[in-house]
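Course assignment 3, question 2. Fill in each field.
Student: A.L.
Task: Predict the tertiary structure for the chain below.
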Amino acid sequence: MKPIRTAIVGTGSVARLHAEALRAIAGETGEVELVAAADTDAARLGAFAAEFGVAARYPDAATLLEEARVDLVSICTPPAAHVPVALAALASGCDVVVEKPATPTLAEFDRLIDAEKATGRFVATVSQHRFGSGAQRVRELLRSGVAGRPLLALCETTWFRDQAYFDVEWRGRWETEGGGTTMGHGVHQIDLMLSVLGPWTSVNALARRQARRTETEDVSLAHVAFDGGAVASVVNSAVSPREESYLRFDFEHASVEVRHLYGYTDADWVLTPAPGHEEEVRAVWEAGPWGVGSGHLAQFREVMAALREGAAPPVSTKDARPTVQLVAGIYASAFGGTPVCPEDLGPASPHHHRMQGDGPAW
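Answer field:
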């Protein structure tokens, strides 16, 4: 079989994660080939291309799409450029992988969905934490029924970013990043939480600028209710010197926790069965998959396998939209001072078109 010819647009730090995953898959199966890259920064592009052996180098996405023959475009630009590049790639007949946050607004996300349908091509959104074996075992506990109903979750992204981080031109600005620490950092754990608990039904939140000079928030807190009856506490911070990513799921018959920072392994997960349920809970947990961390490689393997079969690769736009919607809900509740439901975030809502809506009032 011919390898899937892939290009990367945007060659900053996150592009290296994409390139490393593609290189690993090429070494494993030969089913993918990184053939082109584009960046407006010639020096950055040159260093990236030299490191990963990319022969075809382009000053922008438009030139790449016009001149390079590629099947898949991996978009690693700042968030505000995701949709224009994705729309152009889809129109040129390419499938797309887009980094998170996929779009800075719900309206743009819906444009992406419409273009996907119109072109018949696929868009996969990077949601790598869904693919580690620990997360797969949590979902199997739920599917099997041995864990019982989900009751309570904690979802905490307490990271540290100094002022210099936010002084980069596109960071901490509504128009270019779509939001602050909720959108740029917390979205990783929020996405994993939703992949376990399913549809959310309401959110009550607050957001603050506690320490950084930035347009956007550096702290947010939210209470989220879910269709299945569970409730969750969600904390996002860019001002926490002891950094941690923490998720806890309390089911009727078990608690499951993971502590990590930017990616977990099996060793980061802890299972605590409820008294009287130890045997059946541990049996399902131990029978699940093991040995897969939550990096980009795990998702990219699944993406390539799906594209080989002509199927929609994970995570689809349908799967990813609730995550962007919940981020919008957190901002809408925080700046509106009232609980928000998904149906409140339609095209009539200012938060559909801009994450901050008509706020914030700081």
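Instructor remarks: The domain at 4-125 is CATH 3.40.50.720 (Rossmann fold). The mean pLDDT is 97.
Grade: pending
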